[in-house]
User: What shape does this take?
Amino acid sequence: MAKEMLKGNVAIAEAALRAGLEAYFGYPITPQTELLEHLSKRMIELDRVFLQAESEVAAVNMVYGAASAGVRVMSSSSSPGVSLMQEGLSYIAGSEVPTVLVDIMRGGPGLGNILPSQGDYFQVTRSAGHGDYRPIVLAPASVQEAIDFTVMAFDLAEKYRHIVIVAADGQIGQMMEPAELPPMREVRKERPDWALTGAEGRDPNVITSIYLKGEEMEAFNLKIQEKLSEIRRSEPRWYEFQTEDLDMLVVGFGTAGRIAYTAVEMARERGMKVGLLRPQTLWPFPEERLSQLADEIESVLVVEMNAGQMLEDVRLAVGGQIPVGFYGRMGGVVPMPDEILEAIEGHYNRLTVRTVRT
Amino acid sequence: MSAINFAPPENMEVVYERPESLAETHTHYCPGCTHGVSHRLLAEAFDELGLREKAILVASVGCSVFSYKYFDVDSCEAAHGRAPAMATGLKRVNPDAAVVTYQGDGDLASIGIAEVIHAATRGENITVIFINNAIYGMTGGQMAPTSLPGQKTNSSPFGRNVEMTGYPMRVTELLSQLDGTAYAVRRSLHDAKNIRKAKKAVLTALQTQMAGLGFSIVEMLSSCPTNWGMTPEEALDWVESEMIPYYPLGDYKVADSVANLDGGKRR
Assistant: This one.
């Protein structure tokens, strides 16, 4: 298919639909709303389920219901709405029903604003609800990646019977750029054997997240931890740029990672041996690759549109081997390439001074 | 030795047995609790309407949290108050299923009031079995939105003071005002006659759903001897003498389409 000019939110909605989305439940919130609006038209045209819920609390529980019926289902929201969905996400994780959620992140805390932010990193990567689990989190840096990751999200959700969150900042949701949509997939006709459909000619199925006995709850937890370990081994994804002949690595995701790419190009032009690692999965975090690179370099600079959240994962991966610097903007302020370049230069120069002294 | 024969003797007739839709297991309910009665009514209704293989039960949080274990149908366990939202998701993608939420008063009338109101106003084709026993049972007897004025509970030890905590909520009347509600009735489980009426209401509610006529709710005034601090018999008397005056029994909404089910001869 040819490339066309697409707005991120619309592209995600259309990609989900083409990936075989059967049901969508959501609630309007800026800067995500075009996603819901697009599906309100397209899903009805295709005779699929679209429902505007009374709240994000209800939306996520409608998703829980439809996911328990074994259909491809998703919701989308933005930061304060995702906060409201935490309860439902935890039940979904505890019931192992495949679910896709799109979070078009905005400035916070509180009502905050509707500008692009990456302030939900902790919220989406730590657990996105109570209890011991982490959702798979995909972080696109372009409209094309937003499309590709949305399609992948459904496949991963079903492969692992788990939650997949596509976490894009408001910039990705709101901007237009050329991108190619996937071909239309057929909607699945079969339901999984565990799905709630009415127990016609079979034993009843039960979907629940309650295990009253400590040993049973622990056994279930061990089962999901095993699944998460497998995800940690198999699913980390990242993008690398200029990581050969390297002194210093810049790490950034989403829009911050994309702007950092330009800044890294500029730094290379100025003779600095700088490269970029842009995690595409925030969980599982590409910790192994980062740890490998840390063995070969002098320093890391983390760039984010928050107060330093992924920074903690970078520090864990680097394990204190080398200094980790940080440049962040908050509240919906998007950094300019020259600002990141300045941060790179400052960090790089300190590194040079330190290296010369020793 | 031959196997034990459970078949009735030839000269006797089976007049009472476990409905097929009820699982062959013990429940955890307290002696004298009416959950067992309302479970049985729902299971009988599934059987009689041939819905066992179409039913999806959405259990809620409260004493009935494990009700999914007691029915031999597809089932799930919703988050506290969210059963109508979960049921909405299930029904929208399984339009031919009989989706039923089973919710207590804390679950439905307090934490889940938004979800049930919106399910009703959407005319969601689901059936809500609403168990009103005027108290939080599972957490051990705290005040519910339906606790009566002056009622002593573990969180209103001096009796419910309406000036401080507000008034009991008449849920069925409230939901009957919404255009999406097709059938909204209140019944009581305090004696045999009323139990039979409750059974008929459950049948009508399920028929309403299966005919796609809209939202249906059957409120059942129920007893909680343990948390009321009464004997089972005293508790049933209390339903009749204290609850019914505040929560009058009756049909609060029977849409014309429901009244005309089976050519006007609804069960």
Q: What stands out?
A: The two ends of chain A are 56 Å apart (CA to CA).
